[in-house]
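Sample pair:
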Amino acid sequence: MIRLIIRLWRNISSRRIVQYGLLLLLMILASFAEILSLGAVLPFLAVLTAPDRIFRHPEAQPFIKALALTSPDQLLLPLTIGFALAALIAGAMRLMLLWASTSLSFATGADLSINIYRRTLYQPFEVHIARNSSEVINGISTKINVVIFNIIFPVVTLISSIILLTGILLTLLSVNPVVAVSAFTGFGLIYAVIIKITHKRQVTNSRQIAQESTNVIRSLQEGLGGIRDILIDGNQGVYCNIHHNAELIMRHAQGSSVFISDSPRFGMETLGLVLIASLAYLLMQQPDGLAKAIPVLGTLALGAQRVLPVMQQAYGAVSKIQSGQASLQDVLALLEQRIPEYAGQSVAEPIPFHERIALRNLSFRYTRQSPWVLKDIELSIAKGSRIGFIGRTGSGKSTLIDIVMGLLQPTDGRLEIDGRVVSTSNQRAWQAHIAHVPQSIFLADSTIEENIAFGVEKERIDHDRVRFVARQAQIADVIEEWPKKYDTYVGERGVRLSGGQRQRIGIARALYKQTDVIIFDEATSALDTDTESAVMQAIEDMDRNITILIIAHRLTTLKNCDQIVRLRDGHVEHIDNQAEISYDHNTLVEM
């Protein structure tokens, strides 16, 4: 656990580290305030029971002379005021410490969440397709909360408790060393035994919370994401049951952790009362028992009132840290994702592209154990050409396009632009040339205009260009019939639009980027024949310096292509020139 906390510390910014240093200083000051408040109790209670003894005490003489006191009765007011001030200062310091600890813990949690999101977005494409998004979403939302409440804040609380306990112990040692040492040792051993007994249960709870919180997120994503099919099939009960099982296990583990963390407090308070009652009995057996007993008992009672909650805080902190261990491991895995060198740098200057894209003896597979998706691909694409790709499902078309876009790195061979090899060091400079229209268009729950200019800050959107590309994508007439036109909200994932409308907005988005390589990955599959023809004609009328790559299942979609590349089982089976192809509206590529 200590190693995990050290790893977490390495991911905290230097600014926060300085703030934690200041927080440590505040903890020490709060400890001194506790010493002051406890130290003020003994003379205050003593002056209530035996003011003459205090008035004659040698150590009290400087205080008496400074205030020009002439009788024991005059001690009560200044000592009452002193005790009240000490209590107020201690209370204010503890309140300030709580505010600073809470604020800094949550600020650190925000930093970690932002860092995870940033690192995740910069991960290579193969990382994203290899894991479930619910793991990342749960890490950024739920598990970060676990780290705040069960790791960061408890660690801060534990350190603060140790410092406060040290100050209280030093004060109580001056009152009654035997009782102070006995109480601290006894209570400390009891808490240590409880921690030992509950450790395995807390670790189990930790794993269940981490695992089932991911399952809860996954069940929500799948249930709400597939709501159309769920309503049609009437299988709501299946998804309710999945969510029920995950939620129940997670909440049971959380409840168990809270009970283990909080329950010892009641037993310790009882033991504290028994200890004070026993001490009172022993003191009363001595000569002048009452006069001696009340100040000592009062100080120890106030000390116990301070010690027991602080000890409980320390124990609760250790218990929570144990229950957050598994979530911390998951969060650290996300925090320690490697981030590329270009992250945070200015937009890359496009690498020169004047002649051709070339695939040289290119092969690809996702892992060493998986089969080859592409094998020994040799292909040359001249700048400004229109190239179509066809082949059965699983022939490698989309993977080939992902490599051309720099999303995947070849396992063997290379991708070259004008003879220059594209690698991880310059892939962003190549991707600056590319716009992509996938088969399934992602639309944010914002306006039409913001979705066309996706990724551009709202105040920087070029409104004229939005309208121009909307006309090119054959969607402008539809948009301009709506009351709010380009300010119309599309709903979550474009739910208020038809499939064809979503697809045309995706095409307009690609055109808005004004790149010189546009890739259509079955982008017109949701369009009717007439709209598809109009869109493809608009694409054909574009600047001939723009290179267009098209994956399609209908040969008619590719009728304006210069060449059609046929893929089979990861190999280039044949490359057809335009003159060699006969088109039929009903001709589909083999699926």
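The domain at 356-580 is CATH 3.40.50.300 (Rossmann fold).
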